[in-house]
Amino acid sequence: MDQATQNFVQAKRLAVVGVSRNSQKFGSAIYTELKGRGYQVYPVNPTATEVNGEKCYPNLTALQGQIDGAVVCVSPKHVEPVLREAAAIGMKAIWLQQGAQTPEMVKLGKDLGLDMVSGKCILMYAEPVKSFHSFHRFFAKLIGQY
Asked: Phi and psi dihedrals of 85, rounded to 5?
């Protein structure tokens, strides 16, 4: 596991950008899973004040000083403002969940001085790894992509 990935999963206070009122959406599933794994997670969605009975934050700035990093689960066209905001508030740890990353956004994050993790599913790395993610993790280790 590379250093950026290891540092990210060791953080315990994370924002999940892209949490939806629809529990079937990927951002919501990640939020729920990380919470169940003992992380202190904060949902971020600029159009929701509450998700599943919990306060939802409009952006990362609203959480400044309360979080160690952010998992970004939005479409690539919405990633740039999130990265710029993270850099502006001094946040370094960003995980671009699969589906959110593009080569341009990874480059932008690095240019902004962010510690970027991309092209990986956080649920393969955030302990305890469960279900089919443990199989994917085993396979990734086997082929040297862990």
From this structure: -65, -45
Burial environment of residue 32 by CB neighbours within 10 A (0 to 12, 13 to 18, 19 or more): middle
φ, ψ for residue 64, nearest 5 deg:
-50, 130
DSSP type of residue 129: P
Strand order in the sheet with 40-44: 40-44, 13-17, 69-72, 93-96, 115-118
Nearest residue to 56 (alpha-carbon basis) of 12, 17, 97? 17
Residue with tokens 């086997």: 142
Closest to 30 (Cα-Cα) out of 48, 17, 49:
17
Distance (Å, rounded) from C-alpha 146 to C-alpha 143? 8
What domains are there in the chain, each with its CATH number? Answer: 3-142 (3.40.50.720)
pLDDT tens sequence across 135-146 = 444 444 445 554
pTM of the complete model: 0.87
Strand partners, 43: 16
Quote the DSSP letter at residue 38.
T
